[in-house]
TrEMBL record, chain A:
It is found in: Cell membrane; Cell projection, Filopodium; Cell projection, Ruffle; Cytoplasm, Myofibril, Sarcomere. Belongs to the protein-tyrosine phosphatase family. Non-receptor class myotubularin subfamily. Heterodimer with MTMR12. Interacts with KMT2A/MLL1 (via SET domain). Interacts with DES in skeletal muscle but not in cardiac muscle. Interacts with SPEG. It comes from Equus asinus. This is Myotubularin. The gene is MTM1. Residues 1-31, 530-554 are annotated as: Disordered.
TrEMBL record, chain B:
It holds the Pfam family 3-PAP. Belongs to the protein-tyrosine phosphatase family. Non-receptor class myotubularin subfamily. This is Myotubularin-related protein 12. Heterodimer with lipid phosphatase MTM1. Heterodimer with lipid phosphatase MTMR2. CDD domains: PTP-MTMR12 (cd14594). GO terms for biological process: phosphatidylinositol dephosphorylation. Acts as an adapter for the myotubularin-related phosphatases. Regulates phosphatase MTM1 protein stability and possibly its intracellular location. By stabilizing MTM1 protein levels, required for skeletal muscle maintenance but not for myogenesis. It is found in: Cytoplasm, Myofibril, Sarcomere; Sarcoplasmic reticulum. It comes from Equus asinus (Donkey). Its main location: cytoplasm. Signal peptide: none annotated. One of its GO terms (cellular component) is membrane. Keywords: Cytoplasm, Sarcoplasmic reticulum. The gene is MTMR12.
Amino acid sequence: MLPGPLDFSDTISSMASAPTSKYNSHSLENESIKRTSRDGVNWDLSEAVPRLPGETRVADKEVIYICPFNGPIKGRVYITNYRLYLRSLETDSALILDVPLGVISRIEKMGGATSRGENSYGLDITCKDMRNLRFALKQEGHSRRDMFEILTRHAFPLAHSLPIFAFLNEEKFNVDGWLVYNPVEEYRRQGLPNHHWRITFINKCYELCDTYPSLLVVPYRASDEDLRRVATFRSRNRIPATGGGYESDDAYHNAELFFLDIHNIHVMRESLKKVKDIVYPNVEESHWLSSLESTHWLEHIKLVLTGAIQVADKVSSGKSSVLVHCSDGWDRTAQLTSLAMLMLDSFYRSIEGFEILVQKEWISFGHKFASRIGHGDKNHADADRSPIFLQFIDCVWQMSKQFPTAFEFNEQFLITILDHLYSCRFGTFLYNCESARERQKVTERTVSLWSLINSNKDKFKNPFYTKEINRVLYPVASMRHLELWVNYYIRWNPRIKQQQPNPVEQRYLELLALRDEYIKRLEELQLANSAKLSDPSTSPSSPSQMMPHVQTHF
Amino acid sequence: MRAVPRPPLPWGWAEPQPPVLVAAATAGARVAASAPARRCFPGRRYAGERGSRRWRRHQGAQALLRVVRAPRGEQLLCEASTVLKYVQEDSCQRGIYGKLVCTDFKIAFLGDDESALDNDETQFKNKVIGENDITLHCVDQIYGVFDEKKKTLFGQLKKYPEKLIIHCKDLRVFHFCLRYTKEEEVKRIVSGIIHHTQAPKLLKRLFLFSYAAAARNSTATDPKNHTVMFETLQDWCWELERTKGNMKYKAVRVNEGYRVSERLPEYFVVPTPLPEEDVPRFQGHGIPMWCWSCHNGCALLKMSALPKEQDDAVLQVQKSFLDGVYKTIHRPPYEIVKTEDLSSSFLSLQDIQTAHSKFKQLFLIDNSTEFWDTDIKWFSLLESSSWLDIIRRCLKKAIEITECLEAQNMNVLLLEENASDLCCLISSLVQVMMDPHCRTRVGFQSLVQKEWIMGGHCFLDRCNHLRQSDKEEVPVFLLFLDCVWQLVHQHPPAFEFTETYLTVLSDSLYIPIFSTFFFNSPHQKDTNMGRESQDTQGKPLNLLTVWDWSVQFEPKAQTLLKNPLYVEKPKLDKGQRKGMRFKHQRQLSLPLTQSKSSPKRGFFREETDHLIKNLLGKRISKLINSSDELQDNFREFYDSWHSKPTDYHGLLLPHIEGPEIKVWAQRYLRWIPEAQILGGGRVATMSKLLEMMEEVQSLQEKIDERHHGQVALQAEASSLLRASARLSSLFPFALLQRHSSKPVLPTSGWKALGDEEDLARREDESVDVGDL
């Protein structure tokens, strides 16, 4: 793994998440012995801590980081209002830990006054991104109490009437991610409104349904009065509205009912916990497969994908629209509609298309991100928390794995989205619904994650992407093809292969560069030849000696 | 039958010819007398028979034979018409009518409507085995369906099934409906197929011999094949020189003419100070045989155990003999030799056999329902087969040995009963990992020749090609290929060959026209092909080697065996090379810290007795070094290698953590339509890569053209991958085409959640109930 040379502009925008090097798939990861080059290049050495605009330092302390892979390492931990940053103080270790406080789900004290063993007194921090951090502290001088309190305050600002960091972040990007999604434009792209569907402003001030967006597309023949009546019968007034907005006949004629057997948010949460048990800190070795099976995680992925395939198939084969609903309408519904849309409409497989998809089907339609993720909230055991969005992204990853040329974005893109799902650096995933976001003026007061991504798109691009406008993509929802997303779930383990750069990809990029060079060369030669038509003998020495010939086997 | 010989076709192939009824005795093999009618598909040189009466009598069969690729000497044994072959397509089945034939080489289905079968879309045609051909050796299990019930068929049948299901060793599954076939023909074809695939055979009756006899005059060797066969003393000397092992080891001809042992090859390599007269003492048992030398001079050796003896006096003789051998190699420059007993503390052949028979069953799937029924339990089914765990153990063992050679500077001596099963496996795996030459195609083939063919791996017995009822297939070689596949899969740029190469190599185990995998030892091959069988024309039979890939594949198809990601090691001039070597050493070797060295390492004084006990049959399970120390060394070596960037031309280690050992999907899933990802899989990126290569190459040519003022030859670069717009993930093996873009939907439901049941019943949003 080579730490790639970093350009400075890149550093400013993304150093907090540290997905910096494009060869590095572990966005938030820094726990590595190899990556010394990053610091010093990136940051003001006197501070020794990277800082985002608006980020302020709170405290620092000498601790022992109990690395589950390399044993205890002495280091200094710096806490800001955004992150926890640890730098090794040992000469033979260049370990760095850079963790946004938003990923912290729980902070526990370990060991008591009577604890004997070495390094048994300290803090144990549970993270939402599949890892735990343990710090051993000295028993004297309240150092643990101080650190516990500082961390708790800044990791869980809601309980302390502090703002979430996204509202303090002063980062500037040359693209405004909030402009990516414009509902009217997106509906227009889909050919809506038409004679089957109309746009209604009935929910303009969220008076019909406060968890729905203000702009809705509804069946043409349903009057606003009908909608108001329907709304009273549905959970939280959530009326049926269009997701995909597909070509369709009358929506509710010949409605076919099928059940998808997908389990609820509690089952999903427990399943992910089990995944963590088998991968962190140690990967279960001899019974890996049966342990993996017993987590049921991939089984859930399979069922979600199967459901989405069924929805997509119904929409594309029949002339019928599909009404997707679950008990409340913003978890599985969002998963199924967005995955079905991804299968049917190639637009959503581009970077911007995917951003729009997330913005529309998840954020705008009221997936309860705040409850499911618990941004800034200390209640780690909240039954409302569940990795529904992660599960969706995992499904997308499985699809991109099965169709490696069909998506404009790469794995890094998906990992970055997941990292900032928790980080609280951007406003994108904050709050439960559009009306709450509007009340908090999120688009004015915070930066969008899409600003970070779109101002640095190259890093998130899949070089193999082949645009195929009308291609419908059905993944194979079989366990034979589903695999655990190792580069995400097991990325903290240095023993697990992270094939970065992917050799096929690297070779392809080399060839691309070579092609461009040759084309340039050829143009130059053409110019030179036309200039020197009279004297062909003076052509420069053979280019085959000057240029690296590509070694191929045809 | 002695027609005037005509010039042989390239590679000894006959074009399909009309069948001729053969008189009772030909030079070819006699198959059991139960065979009802006997026809043969002769080569072109028999074409003069065409006008004969016998030929006209069988003109009826002509149509179907147009699609038969018949190797010379093949004889038709029985046939049945109006057989319906099921073809699974878009998750519904349809049938194709045709003729089912059984020859002494294969079972073949010949469709009445050729166009439906002779599918030109199949880009990766095998010239020997068509997609509806099953060599007799490739048949794994035959089932009959009686009143909807599936039963294994064997021996004499009282009742004949309405449907025949054939499971193949390459994991294809064929369904033939016999309902519309004449009763007489059903009886004949079913009992014929059962007999010819299940009855024990004599070695001499293998198709190999009739084929070789028929192709006697053809010169079917590929001049460009540089594989070292290790059949001559020079081959061994060359290998010694290549690995710089000639300082300490010598090639010996003591077994020339198999004077000493029929188990050993005629030529092999032993430590230089070892007296040659020691070799015959126990027919080569107890002699350390050289496999390979590492860049630091350490060598990998193997040794077969001495025969077990009860008699104390004999034991004493054995002990002193071994003592002598060890004393020889205990002197400088050998010094430290670590022994690795593969027959006591490692896998048993039984483990491998059991695991594989469970494992393959997971892929021999009869229908869609079966596929989805097993899908939910897939991971635990995989695990319960233990196959992947066995792969992990082999890889781990190979890493341990690599660590000894590379980091500890120790010689390693592998021990095994006959030194011809796990010794072959482990020693070749170590070489693939340590020697980049073994990762080229020629190098890999030479390795298989050296360690497996000359190493005396009993292919005939392990594959049970003779169908001996007391034996079962023990796929040690397949296990090796699967281990190599894991490496290929994890480090794609390090190999000159592709996974497709490994897959077709594994298929070639069952094609009885290549001699490579059909003998137990070089001696067995030589005695059966050479001296003894100089019957008719006084010339030894000329057998094909599997390494001549042009026998099976057209040049275009052969491009799929070459890895486009592989880049040859750049050739350096001398000055650079020196620095390079230094760097290489530094990269590969770990510093030997003091803590690592242990008095135990120099085993000779302390451990000779122990070792000898071991060799004499008193097995102990734990070896000298398998302590915590060994584990620590292993971990350090393994972690340290993986933390550095990979040098594809240097040492290569596999990852062996749970998630890293994978199912060789191309080989195992290739015939299952449900597992097919249309337009997806890794082939999608590979075809993009090849496209780009072509583009770059053509640009390169244009530039050269401009410079040299000459029109560059248009490279024949039209790759197979490019031909088709949307390939399947199973490419190049997708036999069953899915034409529509309908999704494949799982048909089975949810497995019980067990302890999560109560969670599952909970509402997502308890707060919302009654919120209206």
